[in-house]
Predict the 3D structure of the following.
Amino acid sequence: MPVVNRIADMSTEMTSWRQHLHTIPELGLDCHKTAAFVAERLREFGVDEIHEGIAKTGIVALINGQGAGPTIGLRADMDGLPMEETAALDYKSTHPGKMHACGHDGHTTMLLGAAKYLAETRNFAGRVALIFQPDEEDGGGGEVMVKEGIMDRFDIAQVFAMHNAPDHETGTFHLNHGAIMAAADEFNVYVTGKGGHAAMPHTTVDPLLAGCSIVQALQSIVSRNTDPLEQLVVSVTQIHSGTTHNVIPETCKITGTVRTLSKDVQAMAVKRMEDIIAGQAASFGVEARLEIKYGYPPTINHAQKAAFAAEVAADVVGKAHVDEDTRPIMGAEDFSFMLEARPGAYVNLGQGEGPMCHHPKYNFNDEIAPIGASFFARLVERAQPVNRG
């Protein structure tokens, strides 16, 4: 079955929704205008329940199908990024310093398109829970919604989400049966020595020299402590020390990120960081302290649900356009918290050539919105078919 005809007929309307949302990007949990627009559309569609104010501006809307059955969750993120848009668009961001640089305006639109169709047809059993989530980019709104109890409150049995993929052919689906995105952890290393005159280094204990050695030694974790078949990123992104050319500073701060696809590799990386930092500190006679800020866990698809999602995607675009063995990427996604709470899958939908996500000229491809909405709709209809007996 190709793109659902009724959803294809909504293409112009969906484009207008998406381009309006593109003009009003909002950050974090403060997606007030976006949530208001979503709630207004949902009321127009005649969904059965709209629950607002979850994770501050998140929404869970319910549509009842025909007869008893479980509840399937579909999630779209709503927030933008703190970036200045540079693309020359008629619908450019009207909020200075903010833009939809990751396509969440498109994700919201695709779920709205599915919502309108499902509210009209109700060709499924049980219920569908439409999850409109704020704060994917920087704070873990998905975690907040889970902690506020949406899975139990709405009796959600399984959950699915979708992201656009600028680096893949338009209208193709990409997923796998395991880890598809990485855990994202931050680290800070605080090095303390003894400052003094730069012309008399022998009277000091130089934290900057120790810090530079720590930065180099951390690179050995990937090359010498990690199974080559595993994936790990340890990136130092900042080093701060000193104030002028003729003073050896007292302190040095090193900052970076660790990306992993499994908890075992994550634990190994942290342990090796602790050991390396302690060893380097001892060799230079400084004090050093490691601080780890654990962020989003890895996004791990449940194998059975991923296989089902691939079947549904093949219904919409044809099996030749579905890659269900795509390589994971080391970016992170807070849908991971929902997948820790319930079985489900996360898929990527190709949107063709163009600037990558988080680029100041990025723009969602409106051509894929009916494809994504059809995928969401068919997920529901196939997961929870009506009993015609």
